[in-house]
Structure formats: C-alpha cells, structure tokens
Design a protein that fits this description.
Blueprint: H1 5-19, E1 25-37, E2 43-46, E3 79-82, E4 87-93, E5 105-112, E6 119-123, E7 136-145, E8 152-158, E9 164-170, E10 178-185, E11 195-201, E12 205-215, H2 228-235, E13 241-244, H3 247-251, E14 274-275, E15 281-282, H4 288-297, E16 301-306, H5 324-338, H6 344-351, E17 362-365, H7 377-391, E18 396-399, E19 416-423, H8 425-431, E20 444-452, H9 461-476, E21 481-486, E22 490-492, E23 503-505, E24 510-512, H10 514-524, E25 529-536, E26 544-551, E27 556-563, E28 569-576, E29 582-591, E30 610-617, E31 620-625, E32 629-636
Parallel strand pairs: 1-28, 2-13, 2-21, 13-16, 16-17, 17-18, 18-19, 19-20, 20-21, 22-23
Antiparallel strand pairs: 1-25, 3-6, 4-5, 5-12, 6-11, 7-10, 7-12, 8-9, 8-11, 14-15, 23-24, 26-27, 27-32, 28-31, 29-30, 29-32
C-alpha cells in the first residue's frame, strides 16, 4: 500500500515524537512520614437544572412539558393526532385543573372519532423516546371527562414507520378529576429513540388532561425515579456527597424564581413548578425529596445549599426583618431533612413517604454571593449562621463568598468557603499550585464548582489533562480542601447551554467524557494520608504533575501522574517503606492521541482506562509515563 508523501511524513514525525522523551525524573516517597491528613470525603457531585440535567436527563420521566405549559403559539411539545376522518381541537384551559398548584389543563374537544379513526394528542419526549425490547413502561394521567369519550388508548409509536411498539387502554370511570394509571409492554424491537407517545380516544366529547407521565424502568425500580444508565455512571465516580439543589438553580434569576423547596415536595399534582434560570420551565417533579432520595440511592450524603436572599439578576433581601422569613425557611428545610417524625417538617417528610431522617454534616448558605454588588452577604451570612448554629450547632457552615474577619462576631465565621474555577487547560496547569502556600488557619475550602472548559458539549482529552492536573493540586492540599465537585455534571447533547459537562447523553444512550474517566480513577484511588515526597529532574515549566496519598489501613500508596506534554517522561521511583521483596503494582492508564481526542455518543469508549501491572523488586521502580497520559498507580506496601 502506497502512502501520499504528506501522510508518510506525518507518520514519521508521529513515530519520532513517540520515541522522544524527557530526561529521567526522580520521585522519592517516604510512606512512613505522613506530612498531612487527606480529606476522607474529597470527591462528590454537583448538579443543577441546566442542559436538561434533570428533566430530559437524570429524572427518568419520558414526556416533555407533561403539565401543559402554554406559550403564545400553542402548548409546547403537544400536537393533535387525527387519524382517518377524525376531527378535534386542543387548547389551554387556564381555569380548570386538578389542583390549586396546577389550575390549568389541556382541553381536547373531539367532534368526530371512532375506533377506526381516533383523535388525541402526541408528545415527542425529550428529542425522542427510547423504546427497547420486552420492556415495561409505567405512567399515569389526570383526566376530567365523560366516560363515553373513552376508553383512552396509550401507545408508543415509531416515528418513521408508524409501527405500534406498545399499547394499552384505560377506561374512564367518572366525570370529575381523577388519576388514571397504566402500563405498557414493548415486544421484540430494535432499540431506538425515534419514537413518540400518543394518547387517543375513539368517541366524540370533551376531555381535560393534566400531568401525563411515562417512565421506563428506573434505577433500583424506584417510583418517580432516575434513569438507569446515568445512575450507574454516577455510582462509578465513587462520590462521597451531592451538593444540592445546586448553583444558579438555587438562586433563580429573581427572588420569585428561586428554588422554593416547600413547593417541590408532596404529591406531584401539588407542585406548581417554576421558571429555571437556564431558559426552560422546571416542573419540580424532581424536587427536594427526589434530590435526597438520589443521595440515598448512591449511598452518599447531601451537602444542603439553602437560599440566602440573593438572585442572579441582582435582587437581594436586606438583612434584618426582611430576611427573617428566608432564615426560617432554611431552618424548616433542615428540619425536613433531619427531623424525626415528632417534628413538624419531619412529619411532612414521613407523609411524603420517607420516615427516616437523612444524614447531614454541611449546610451551604447561598451560591456565588461574590456577585452581589450590594455588599450585603456578610450580614446575610451572619444572620443565617446565628440562627442555624443556635438550633443546629452540629453542622458545618459553608460561605459562598469571603467573609472579612472584622465583619463577624465570634461564632459567625464560616467553617468552609466555596471556591469556583472555570479555566482553559493552560490556565488549569498554571493553577495547580494555587493552594500550596495557602494559610492553614481560618476556614477550610470547598471547591464546589470547577472544570477545565474548552470543548463542547463534553470535555476532550486536553480538558481531561487540565482536570487531572488540577486534581493533583487538590489532593496535595486535601488537608485544606475538604471537598470538591466538578460542574456541570450532566448534559443532554441536544441542549448544550453550557460547556463543558462531564457526562453526555441523548434519549437513548449516554457516555462518559475523558474527564469523567479521570474523575472515576482519582476518586476510586484516594487515600487518607499524604506521605512525604519530593520530585526532582523536572523542568518547573514542564506540564508534568503528580500527587500521592496513602490508604493506611490497606497499606497502599496511590500515585497519580499527569503527563500533559507530547514527550514521554521516564521516572525513577524510590519507595521508602515498600519493603525489599517482590511487588506487583496496578496501573490504570488514560491516554489520548491529541488534546482534541474525545468520546461521543457514536464512539463512547474512544478514550477509557486501561489496566495493567508493574512488577518490581525492592524499593526502586523505573517507569515511563507516555506522552499525553493520565496514570493512577496503586503501590502495595509491606
């Protein structure tokens, strides 16, 4: 086979680059000399309703706009279905609904219909509805109708062929508002998201509809639950906590549009929903209790963020009497999480189906309050802190902006401060040593949002190198940095409003980015102590980074190595405390051919961890870190 001259030259240069390497570096590790303690809960998760992270993402509901929000044109996502000679109209009725929270409904007026020519509505889901073979789907709807218009036929239909993939009928049993449940079962079919939902009737009449839902099998078979593949990917990240309800979603664009937790609990029909800050409506069907049950399913703890009187477009609540209702709301919210059934809000939680309290150690007051130009945050924080510490002195408080020492009374200072970083790969490389010389007095640090931001919708390998480099810096300073969570976590690739996001998906499938796999490796191999180490022979300007932690009970060193250069890096490791016998180290390697290499829905495993072993004897190990490679090496101690 003959190659064009330019391609042959490219192959030669690539070969030469792969063969070239840096001078040997020397890393000395003294496992017996512990210089700092490492945080036991370093890595966690942070999400908010952005990029359809919940509705159209983690929250498994398949139908979009299931509460019939209207706009100036129509009722978004719902279309008339008229088969044969059927005739009907649909419109929004703003005065007839099943609850005070949902006072409106869709009115379907059918003037002509028959079993052979039904009329009704269709919904496309969130850019499609995934249908798989031999799968059970559950759903429900609220209807007000004369039973003579029924029965209601529920179906999943293939977009291209019109084939009915699953169908069932529901008899209407009364004239007033009633809730109807149903199940659908698909047969043998090729997995696809090019499908839609239909709800039809076979007789003339008028029917009002509200809260039409459809769920596939959910994680742990939980009702109103979460999407299986996304939950499995999150579990593989080995998180210790979830910061909820997350970021701008907590604040809202205005005070009115904040995450008002009391309106997100209880039966779905009693949740009015609210306008989210990222351009679309949130039904709040994934509400506070769903957040908390999510932590339970992943066996982690919540880091609860409470609204603190500041919203994104600049509105703020003046400290003092005006702020008191919001402080009381925060106290009530903590009681909803942690109170037993004898408390008011603990009893509400029990009525909502969760009698047992949730664990809690950290409360965050606000979000990104450094944007508040009024200068009110220190006083607002102090007012929240005084009330929370009086009733709940056991919890640590997190500030979202620096609190000047001269502005606080004794006891009002935060336990942690939330720092956020969104940087390019080069900026992340430069930031790695940011906390090395930071004072160890005063509040600890929660890096509540961070990401190397370059590619869209999910990180490429250059971003993963920046992320991994930054994580070595956080681990090296994990006596000061107690917790960290990448953000944003999830993106429906059909709605990438923000770059860059860790996990991408569409209606049918999902994938982890290169940064996702770096996160998984770092979190799964994190010790509880930081031993003494020194690295020599590396040019200070070189993009080579490392961290080392030790799991003292298991007697394992976890060495993280990041080579963000195009040259291989030879490394000689001197391991004091490893013993003189034979050793087998486990290596987890993540490699990209270029910064731009990445994973996609079409090629989800282009970059993924590869496991191998290193055999050595005694206390010296010679190893070469390939170019553009992230490695985690577990070194057993004797």
């Amino acid at each position: 086979m003959r190659f064009p001259n330019f391609l042959l030259l490219s192959l030669v240069l690539t070969s030469l680059s792969a063969a070239a390497q840096q001078p040997v570096a020397h890393l000395k590790i003294d496992a017996a000399n512990i210089v700092r303690h490492a945080s036991p809960r370093m890595y966690g998760l942070m999400t908010e309703e952005i990029n359809h992270s919940y509705e159209g993402g983690l929250y498994a509901e398949l139908l979009s706009n299931d509460t019939f929000r209207g706009n100036w044109m129509s009722i978004a996502q719902w279309s008339l279905v008229l088969k044969g000679d059927a005739a009907a109209t649909s419109s929004l009725d703003p005065k007839d609904g099943p609850s005070t929270a949902l006072p409106q409904s869709l009115e379907l007026k059918v003037s002509s219909a028959s079993p052979a020519s039904p009329a009704g509505l269709s919904n496309p889901g969130y850019w499609g509805i995934a249908v798989r073979s031999h799968t059970a789907y559950t759903g429900s709807f609220y209807a007000e109708a004369n039973p003579a218009i029924g029965p209601v036929t529920i179906s999943l239909i293939a977009n291209q062929t019109g084939a009915v993939l699953a169908t069932t009928q529901v008899a209407l049993t009364g004239n007033g508002w009633r809730r109807y449940a149903f199940q659908l079962h698909s047969g043998q079919t090729e997995s696809s998201a090019e499908n839609h939902f239909e709800l039809t009737v076979a007789h003339p009449g008028t029917m009002h509809l509200q809260l039409v839902t459809l769920f596939p099998p959910t994680f742990d078979d939980q009702p109103n639950g979460n999407r299986q593949d996304l939950m499995e990917k999150l579990a593989a990240m080995h998180p210790n906590f979830i910061r909820l309800p997350g970021g701008n979603y907590l604040e809202g664009n205005t005070i009115k549009e904040r995450f008002d937790w009391e309106k997100t609990i209880g039966p779905l029909v009693d949740r009015p929903g609210h306008q989210g800050p990222w351009g679309y409506w949130s039904t709040d069907q994934f509400g506070l209790l769903e957040f908390l049950e999510w932590t339970q399913e992943l066996h982690v703890e919540p880091v609860l963020a409470v609204y603190a009187g500041y919203s994104l477009k600049g509105e703020h609540v003046t400290p003092g009497p005006d702020l008191e209702p919001y402080v009381q709301s925060a106290l009530d919210e903590v009681e909803y999480l942690t109170g037993d059934a004898n408390t008011h809000w603990g009893a509400e939680r029990a009525r909502d189906g969760h009698p047992a309290p949730f664990p809690l150690h950290y409360i965050e007051i606000g979000n990104e309050d450094w944007f508040d130009r009024s200068g009110s945050y220190p006083a607002r924080f102090a007012q929240f802190a005084q009330a929370l510490r009086k009733k709940y002195p056991q919890y640590k408080l997190i500030a979202t902006a620096p609190i000047p020492e001269d502005s606080t009374k004794p006891g009002d200072a935060p336990d942690l401060v939330d720092d956020h970083y969104y940087k390019s790969p080069e900026q992340m490389f430069a930031l790695v040593h940011h906390y090395d010389a930071a004072p160890r007095t005063g509040p600890k640090v929660f890096v509540g949002e961070w990401a190397t931001v370059s590619a869209t919708p999910t990180p490429d390998f250059g971003d993963a190198l920046g992320d991994a480099a930054w994580m070595t810096g956080m681990e090296r300073n994990s006596d000061l940095i107690k917790m960290a969570s990448y953000a944003p976590l999830l993106v429906n690739v059909r709605n990438a409003a923000w770059r860059t996001n860790l996990i991408g998906y569409d209606a049918l499938s999902s994938y982890g980015s290169p940064s996702y796999y770096a996160q998984c490796l770092f979190a799964a191999h994190m010790g509880d102590a930081i031993p003494q180490s020194t690295l020599t022979g590396i040019n200070p300007s070189a993009r080579f980074f490392y961290s080392i932690t030790e799991s003292r009970q298991e007697r394992v060193l976890h060495l993280k190595l990041v080579n963000a250069t195009t040259l291989a890096q030879p490394l000689q490791l001197a391991l004091q405390g490893a013993g003189s016998g034979a050793h087998v180290a486990t290596v987890y390697s993540l490699h990209g051919a270029t910064f731009a290499a990445t994973n996609t829905l079409q090629n989800p495993q282009a970059i993924h961890p590869v496991q191998s072993t290193l055999h050595f004897t005694g206390t010296v190990l010679t190893h070469t870190v390939p170019a553009l490679t992230i490695e985690v090496i577990d070194l057993p101690l004797q």
